[in-house]
Amino acid sequence: MTQVACGIDIGGSGVKGALVDLGTGEFIGERVRIETPRPSTPEAVAKVCRTIIERLGVARDVPVGITVPAPIVHGTAVFIANLDKSWKGVNVDELMTRVLERPSHALNDADAAGLAEVVYGAAKGVPGTIIVTTLGTGIGSAVIVDGTLVPNTELGHLEIDGHDAESRASSRQREIHDMSWKKWAKRLQRYYGHVEMLFSPDLLVVGGGVSKKHDKFLPLLDLRAPIVPAKLLNTAGIVGAAYEAARAAGKQSGTDAADK
Question: Which residues share a beta bridge with 225?
């Protein structure tokens, strides 16, 4: 019998959701996307999430995982990016469980993407310390050690040479300053070299839209650890949220619901 969970990925411009086959990490049926409401208050966004699970026809016993662009500590958003500032201090687990009328599990969006790459994508079957980064407007990060997530890392905000790392090395900075791939790669080398010095990872995975052009810049980097492009790309947040929701539900019931 196929094990299924629902993942919802909340972003600044859109809220996306789908049912996920936990055996393969692939969507079951179509993805549903609704524009993020304005203002993007917690209640307004939660109602959009409810509409998504209704459109998907999510059964009551199916775990629901939700990504938020914020560090999530014991279910609560510590601070927020790309959504209304009123999210700060909100217990997202409680909010979503109330509005969706079913148990819901929230996690940071970069953490969800990282889990998806470890369980189903570029880092599948790789033991040890895996660091997944997303190069976009900023630099998102996830650290997974032997399959266990170390939540809420903010490695894009490491201070390197007196600068916030993402203010120098994000994909957005490359676009703003019209950098050549070679010049940008020098900044990435400084960034990933520093991350490698701190964590000695066994594998580095690079996501974000620019990873589709990984052949332009990854070969220019000289690191001890292998560095590879992400595989799941736009599906990673939804897939990782679904996986983690099933795992959390399994812990509560005493079984591993996400065990493939």
Answer: none
Helix (H) or strand (E) holding 122: none
3-state DSSP helix/strand/coil percent for the chain, to nearest 5?
Answer: 40, 25, 35
- What span, in angstroms and rounded, lies between the C-alpha atoms of 91 and 106? 9
Contact 169, 158 (CB under 8 A): no
* 0.85 exceeded by pTM: yes
Angle at CA of residue 7, ends 132 and 60, nearest 5°: 150
Q: What percent of the chain has pLDDT over 70?
A: 96
> How far is C-alpha 151 from the chain's CA centre?
11
260 pLDDT tier (thresholds 50, 70, 90): very low
d(CA 133, CA 199): 14
Strand order in the sheet with 104-108: 26-35, 14-21, 4-10, 64-68, 104-108
Q: Which residues of the chain form beta strands (DSSP E)?
A: 4-10, 14-21, 26-35, 64-68, 72-73, 76-77, 104-108, 129-135, 139-145, 148-150, 159-160, 163-164, 203-207, 227-229
Write out the two tokens for 260. Answer: 């493939």
